[in-house]
C-alpha cells in the first residue's frame, strides 16, 4: 500500500502510529536481523509506547522527516518495538542503555550489530543540537561512519556489552523472614516524605505495591508507622491533581512532590493496582475516602478503558489538541462560564484553581484538599463540569489488551465487587477473564496482547502467566466455578517447567532467543514476573495443599530477596507476598449455595490477614480445600485454616470477622 510501511500490518496501536512514516520500519523479528546481515548494515532499534509523550515528539521531529528517514533507510535496518507488546526486548536493551549511558527511558534508541549486540544506546535525541545533546542526524552519521571505518572496535563494544549483561545477575538470597520484612518497613519509613507523603523526591509514582506491603506489615505487627504511611500517601494522591476529581482514575505520576501536577497519561496497570490498594485500606480502616476512590476508579475502568470485547485497554494518552493535559485542566474563566458566578467562585476555591495556574499556560489541575462542605452542591457542580469536559477533544486510547494488566484488573474488580456488593464489577471481571482464556490462549499457550478481539503473535512472558493465573484464582474464589482452577493450573505448570531457572527463581521468558535471557526480579510500575508468579503459586498452594506450588513460590521469593533487602521501594510485591507466606496464608472455605453464602463470603473477605485466600462455593467443590468440609446443618459455613488445619467452623458473619 502506497504511503505505508511494514507496520501497517501490526496489531500494536503504537506501531500503527508509525505505519505512515517514511522510515522503512520492521517489527522485531529474525528476518530484520537477517536483512541487516545481507546488507551489512547495523540495526537501529527504537522502543517506545503509545502513551509516551517524548516518543511522539521524536517521531514528529525525526521519523516523519523525509531527509532523516532517507538516511536511516540507506544506512540502517530500522526496527520499531512497542515495549508493552515486547517487554522482553525492552528489558534486554534497557539494561544495555542504562549500562552504556547511565540512564534509561523512552523513547529508547539502540544501535545493534546484525547479531543483536548493542554498541550504542541512548533515549531521546533532538533534530538539532540542543542542551548539550547532539542532533539525531549527527548521531546517525557518526554511527554509520564507525560501522564502516572502525568495524572491529564496534564489534568489540557489542560483545563486551553482552558479556557484561550476562555477568550482571542478581545474587542469590536467603528466604525472607520477619526480621527482613520489619527492616524493609523501617527503611521505607526513612524514605517517607513527611511533608507531602509518598517516598523520595519528584517525580513521584503511585507506590501501589509498597502500600500493599505496608498494609500487610501493619496487620501482622500493629505498626502505627506502616499504616500511617499508607493512609497519608493514599489521601495525598487521591486529593491531588494526580487523581481525576471529576471522573476518577489516576494519572501515571506526579511531576512535583505534592501530587499536584501529573503526567496525564492514565495506565491500566496503575489503576487496577490502586483499586485493590484502596479497597484493602478501606477494609482495614473503614476510610470513606478510600471507598469513594475504589468505586470511582473501578467505574473509570469500566467506562473509559473497557473494550468492545470486554477486555481493558492499556492506556489513555496524556495529550489532546497538541498539548499535554488539555482535556483535564481548567482556568477560573472556564469555571465561571460553565457554572455561573456563584458556583464558579465556589468551585474555583474548592478545586484550587488560580489565575496564575498550577500547570501550564495559566491552567490548573483540579485538586480536592478537603471534602466539600455541601456534598449535594458538589455533585451538581461535578456533573456540569463533566458535561462541559465531554465536549473537549478526548485523549487517544491505546486499545491494545495486555494479558498481565488485564489480570490485575480482573483481580481488583472481582474482589471489589464482592466486598462492596457491586455485582457489575464481578461481571466485568468474568468477561475480561473469558477474553484471556479464549482469545489470549492458543494451543495451551498464553499470548501477550490482542486488539479488536484478535490476538497478537507474541508469547506471554512470566508476568502474564503470573498475573493471569492469579486472576483466575481470584475468580475461582469469587464464583466457586472450578473452570477457573482448570485454567490457572496449566499456566502455573508452565511457569514451573518453561520459565524456571535451574539455579533458582525464574526467567522472564520461556525461550532463550535474545542475546541475553531477561530475568528481572524488581517491581517497578507493576509486579515483576517473579513476584507475580510468587503470588499466584502461593495462592495455588493454599487451595490445593500441593507442595510443588509452595516450593515454586518460595523459589521466586528467594530469588528476589536481595532486591527486597537492599531496595524495598522496588520490591513491594515481593514483600507483600512474603508477608502472605509468613501468615500462612490463611485458607478460608465458605461452603454453601450462591446467594445464601453471600454475607458470609463478604465477611471472609473482610479478614485482613495478609494474602488470605478465600474460596466461596457449593459443598463438594472438587478441590482439596473443600474436602470433608460440608455446610453445617445445611447452613452456609466458613472454615478458616492454615496449612489445611482448620479452626471450628463458623456460620455467623460477625463471628468470622471478629473471631479470626
What does this molecule look like?
With 660 residues, the protein is an alpha+beta fold. The protein is globular, with a radius of gyration of 25 Å.
Strand order of the largest sheet: 1-3-2-4-5
Largest beta-sheet details: 5 strands, mixed
Distance between the termini: 66 Å
Evaluate the radius of gyration.
25 Å
Low-pLDDT regions: none
Estimate what percentage of residues fall within beta strands.
Answer: 5-15%
Helix content: 40-55%
Shape type: globular
DSSP, total strands: 20
- Chain-averaged pLDDT: 96
Please tag this protein with its features:
about 650 residues, alpha+beta, five-stranded antiparallel beta sheet
Outline:
This protein is an alpha+beta fold. The protein has 25 helices and 20 strands.
Explain the layout of strands and helices.
Blueprint: H1 13-16, E1 25-26, H2 30-39, E2 43-48, H3 53-63, H4 66-75, E3 77-82, H5 87-101, E4 108-112, E5 118-122, H6 136-149, H7 151-167, H8 178-191, H9 208-221, H10 224-239, E6 253-254, E7 262-263, E8 266-267, H11 268-285, H12 288-305, E9 313-316, E10 319-320, E11 323-324, H13 332-339, H14 341-350, H15 375-389, E12 397-402, H16 403-419, H17 423-438, E13 441-442, E14 445-446, E15 449-451, E16 454-455, H18 462-479, H19 483-498, H20 529-544, H21 547-559, H22 561-566, H23 572-583, E17 587-591, H24 598-605, E18 613-617, E19 637-642, E20 645-646, H25 653-658
Parallel strand pairs: 1-3, 2-3, 17-18
Antiparallel strand pairs: 2-4, 4-5, 6-7, 8-9, 9-12, 10-11, 12-15, 13-14, 15-16, 17-19, 19-20
Helix pairs in contact: 4-6, 9-10, 9-11, 9-23, 11-12, 11-16, 12-16, 13-14, 16-17, 16-18, 17-18, 18-19, 18-20, 20-21, 20-23
